[in-house]
Amino acid sequence: MSDKDELDPRIQIELEKLNTTTDEINKLEIEYDEANTTFRMLLNESTRRLKLLTKKLGSCIEKARPYYDLLEIAKKQQKECQEAALQYQRASGIHAAAKETVALAEQRFLTNQHEWQFDNAWQEMLNHATMKVMEADTQKAERGRDHQIKASIYKETDENLKQLEEKLQKFIIKSRPYFDEKALCQDQLNTQKQRIESIKKEIIKTKNFYSQTLKNLEQISNEIHMKRQGKQCDDDLLTRPREPGVGAELSQSFEETPTHKTRNNMSSLPDITAELDRCEVCSVATTSSAVSEKDPSENISEDLEEVKAILRNMSLRPEKAEGKMEDMYVSELHIGNIVKSPKKTPKKSSSRPGSSLH
């Protein structure tokens, strides 16, 4: 092979990149499949455990749910209040620094006024510093008002939470194992979901790099082709539209062209809270007779009338049952200590319900 026909060294470099990237894509796709499988297993196991607890604890879960829902809301409001406080502190620091800059500039000028002349440059500098002070003061006032509003909202929620705690104390304590377990399951599932999303982003990034490498090879091929024909390598010729080469379809987004391994798995993951709540509704429907807390003073005659009604309707059973499922509550995520422990608690536990949800 002559010197002119020697292989361009850039081709070897790009081919090595393709080989390395291909191995990386295969590795990431395997990890992605394994992470999806783990997520499904965790979801199934979480559903199983929550069904068992629902059968065991019964109706106290629904009776205590308003407290735990409000506890979650209070947790979020407390976090927002803390963030608003930090923003106010930053705004206060910026305002103080701006005021100090103006004060130092004025002091320096007064100290050296016999040597320095108050010209347009000094006037412009002081005006700029003064505007900074005014902007910082406005920002500080806005952050302060935002913090006061969020603190007031959180305080009101906290008071309502204490009232619910006193009213539903018995049900709160009895249902605590369920909500503790649910928070743990959601934390595990969310962690695994984040890992899946992280792997997906890496696959997208790697495939985009693979596509760019193919484009680089195509560009090198164009240059070699024109050199062999003795043509000038003009930028216009290099950049003019050409038929898509082999592998050019990889320039599309990763979601549009996933590989056969991940085509089905790239669909969005199920909503964790909805899946966990669904198992609870099913379990409550099948165990309501075993765990319902009925008043022992109910009249026997009412039971007899109910039996008679059932016997009369057996031959006229409707085609479609008109049952209505209660609205499922959502988003019992990670919650922590927000209010003080209940005033009166059984010997089993002295901590405030919900405080062990980590």
Descriptive report:
By secondary structure, the protein is mainly α. It has one domain. The protein contains seven helices and no strands. Helix 1 packs parallel to helix 6 and helix 2 runs antiparallel to helix 3. It is flat.
Number of helices: 7
Mean pLDDT: 75
Largest sheet, in brief, is: none
Number of domain units: 1
- Strand fraction: under 5%
* End-to-end C-alpha gap: 70 Å
Question: Strands, helices and their partners?
Answer:
Blueprint: H1 9-57, H2 60-111, H3 120-167, H4 169-228, H5 235-239, H6 272-291, H7 300-313
GO molecular function: protein kinase inhibitor activity
Region (Disordered): 247-266, 336-358
Pfam families: SH3BP5
Gist?
The protein has 358 residues and is mainly α. It contains seven helices and no strands. It has helices at residues 9-57, 60-111, 120-167, 169-228, 235-239, 272-291, 300-313.
